[in-house]
Each structure stands twice: as C-alpha cells, then as structure tokens.
Design goal:
The chain is of the alpha/beta class. It is 39% helix and 17% strand. The protein is built from eleven helices and eight strands. It has helices at residues 2-14, 25-35, 97-107, 126-146, 158-171, 176-179, 199-203, 214-224, 230-233, 264-276, 302-319, and strands spanning 50-55, 62-68, 78-83, 109-114, 150-156, 185-189, 253-260, 281-290. Strands 1-2-4-3-5-6-7-8 form an eight-stranded mixed β-sheet, sandwiched between helices. Helix 10 links the parallel strand 7 (253-260) and strand 8. The protein is globular.
C-alpha cells in the first residue's frame, strides 16, 4: 500500500504519464485530497481557525493565510510562521490544523500558516516569494495585529526548505528591520536543503518505499525548478546548504529527521554547517522513523510522539 502511494504519487500528483487512469495532474489531486478521495487522509479543518489575506509584492494579489490561536484564556507569547510541506506541489495552509493547534495550545503560540503558490503552475520563485512576503509583513505588523512578535518559522520537508530559505532571506535583506530582526528559533523537520540531492538520496533503497523515494523527489524538483541545470540546483536561493552561513547571526534551530528517510543527510549536513557557522543547531534523529513522521498519529508511532514533545520542549526553552 505504501509502495503504491510512492509510485502513484509520481504519476497522479504531477500527471507525468501519457496514458492510463492515474493521469489527473496536481490541481485535480489537490481537490481529491481535500475531499478524502486520495490515498492520503482528508485534512481535518478546525472551526476555530480563521483565514486572512496578507499583501504580496505583486500588485493586485494577496497571499492566503490561516490563523490557529491558543485555546481561550491562554496567552500568546509569540507568533509562528508555518510553511507546509508537500514537495512544493501539494497541500495548503489548511492541511495541518491539528498539528498547529497543538503548537498553539502547548507552546502558547499564534500560528500563521501560509498558502504559498504551488508548482507546477507556479514554479520557483513564486512560492518562495510568498513566504518571504509574509515573513516581512509579520515583522512589520505582528505586534500591532496579534499582540506578539514573530518568534518562530517552522516547516516540514519542502516547507523546511522554504523555512530555511525565508530565514536566510531576512538575514541578508538590505533593510535593517529585517536583517537585524532576531527570531527565537527555526523548527525544521525532515527538510530538503540541497536540490542537487545529498548522497543518501541516491543510495537509499527500501522495499516497500516509506513515503518518499528518489523518483518522487525528482518529480517534485522538476515541477518546482523546471529546466534548471545542475549548477543552478546548487544555488543558495533554492539549496540553503550552499549558503555561506558564517556571515550571519544565526537564530537557534531545531532540525529533526527519521533514519528511514532519504533526506537524512540533508538534516545532518545542514545541522553541522549551522553549528560550524556558530549557530545553535539541535539535531534530533529518530531511529526507524520515515519521512513525514511527525504528522503520524502519536498513539501509532512513538517517533511522532517524541518528535512533537521535542519540538514543544525547544519552543518552551526559547520562550523562557
């Protein structure tokens, strides 16, 4: 079943086959997911969540965002910008309500999930620009709008890539209000930080496939970065692993990954580089955990429970 999800995903999500019943393309697959008609479960939407629009750098458009607040009576100690995963192709700002609600309730955070533009309809840099625009808006307006400053940027998988890139965008901004802004922390879960791919992506072979394999990664990359050369794949704009981190005053970062994930090298390499540049990087590896583990039910996967507890511990330590 899981192996089938990996293979079908390449074809169904991106419409890469010329015939057969599975060619529906990314937009149709997203619609199927929202209706619970895909191999992935239908997202749970909280009635207490709110939608808002944040201005884009592009004239005449705004960026949809979703707000998850702590339960009534709990203070908001910081705002978290959350950037969802899905290979730059799938998911939306409304697919992780339950996870963000736990961050909000137990971490005393107001979570803003950004609905960035998705590939293949909107390849790089569209989605990255949206994440950067929301981050800058929150630095400028978070306190007056929500009563708390932007404190954290978080993301999983492709969202981990975009979270790291967004943080580096702020640090190298020519505007002092952004380059001098000090985040309390980054939460980077099983992210991809080298789009030319790290060694384990090529050597990792598992049967059955555990959520993500090289074929699927290559399909996602082709949608996000169409027609790019190998050298362009290593640009720090898309591959944070190649950024010169030594020039920045880096925020603290939590980086997590399971050992049954072809992106394991990304976390180990990026965490090491973060530390080499003088930044605090808490690198947590979870034996036996597959890609996406933190989103699994905690009562069914011990690493999901431990990963969430480690994340909340990190958040609390930075707010104390």
């Amino acid at each position: 079943m899981v192996r089938g999800m990996c293979l079908v995903a390449v074809y169904v999500l991106l419409g890469l086959v010329s015939d057969g019943s599975y060619k529906v393309g990314a937009p149709k697959y997203r619609e199927m997911r929202e209706k619970g008609e895909s191999p992935l479960p239908k997202p749970v939407l909280l009635e207490t969540a709110k939608q808002m629009e944040i201005p884009s750098r592009d004239a005449g458009r705004t960026i949809p965002c979703r707000i998850i607040e702590p339960e009534a009576g709990k203070p908001v100690k910081a705002v978290m910008l959350h950037i969802h995963g899905g290979g730059w192709v799938l998911m939306s700002e409304a697919t992780q309500d339950l996870q963000l609600k736990r961050y909000a309730d137990e971490g005393h955070l107001l979570c803003i999930s950004v609905g960035y533009r998705l590939a293949p309809e909107h390849p790089f840099p569209a989605g990255a620009n949206d994440c950067e625009d929301v981050a800058e808006w929150l630095i400028d307006h978070s306190h007056e709008t929500f009563g708390a400053e932007l404190g954290f940027i978080s993301g999983e998988s492709a969202g981990g890539n975009l979270s790291a890139s967004t943080a580096l965008h702020l640090l190298q901004s020519p505007k002092p209000q952004y380059s001098g802004f000090r985040l309390k922390g980054l939460l980077l879960h099983f992210g991809v930080y080298d789009l030319s791919f790290t060694p384990q992506a090529f050597t990792w072979k598992k049967e059955p496939c555990l959520i993500l394999d090289l074929d699927l990664m290559q399909a996602y990359r082709a949608a996000y970065l169409p027609g790019r050369s190998e050298a362009e794949m290593k640009s720090p704009d898309v591959s944070p692993l190649y950024a010169d981190l030594r020039q920045f005053n880096l925020p603290a970062a939590l980086m997590t990954c399971g050992t049954e994930d072809l992106l394991l090298d990304d976390t180990v390499f990026f965490g090491t580089k973060w530390q080499m540049a003088g930044g605090e990087a808490v690198v947590k590896l979870y034996p036996g955990a597959p890609h996406g583990f933190i989103a699994f039910p905690a009562d069914q996967l011990e690493s999901a429970k431990q990963g969430m507890e480690d994340t909340l511990t990190f958040i609390r330590s930075k707010l104390s």
